[in-house]
Amino acid sequence: MNFSLLFESADVLLKISSFFEKFESEKEIDDPVYKILKARIYSLQHRPELIEKEFKNLNLEDIPEDFLDYYYFIVAHVHFNKKNFNLALKVIEMGLEITESRKRKHLNVLMDYKLKNFKGIISCTNMNYKKALCAFEEALESAKRAEISEVGVRGIMENIAKTHMIIGDFDKALGFFDNILENIKGGFYHRILRKVAVCYLNMGDIEKAGDFMQKAFRALILKKLLNIITYFFILHIRIYVWLKRMLKEQRKPLRMLSK
User: Fold this and answer.
1) Model confidence, pTM
2) How far apart are CA 257 and CA 246, in angstroms?
3) 181-230: per-residue pLDDT in tens?
């Protein structure tokens, strides 16, 4: 498994976090790449104090160049969560300088996309919408090169559309929302449909706004119904397994329930 894939595999990292703790209790490890991976786990666990502890004595000169942008990405998240947006943005720019210098080698295009998308989010938070749009559009291009999932592409396109909504450019926002609805399967359609309705409402088209609000409502109801059906399906399986186990043990249901 390459480092980029492991860095993005949140479920895997969270599952092996206990192994890291046990392994380190037996032997102290100063490897910078190991520390970056541990810091990534702490970021997924929302434990910024442990990230700072992990990076406290880490010398940047000891980090291999191929791993520096991962370091900057994690540090930027720490500053962002502390609402130090300008400092987070500065750290991201440092990370992007690393990815820019490596483009000729075609290395780590995934981090290039993640840093640019994060740069757009921070720029939006700072109400610098022109800069945000530029960052999101660059992130979208990097995401296509990295061949990320459709869900990830949809997320960037939604960020672009929402930014256009904020600045009142509803026609462009609708263009991106329409693209999401037509070409990308899955996701929270009711959320996109609701935002399309808001665009039409702001444009003064009450009829279309009403139509899309109804579509959003129906999509939300369908999503909830699917969740309920899934719940009852799982419950049915559990009951079936329970009854099968009882029959195997030759116990009566009433005796089991009375305990």
Assistant:
1) 0.64
2) 11
3) 887 655 567 788 888 988 988 888 888 888 888 887 777 776 666 666 66
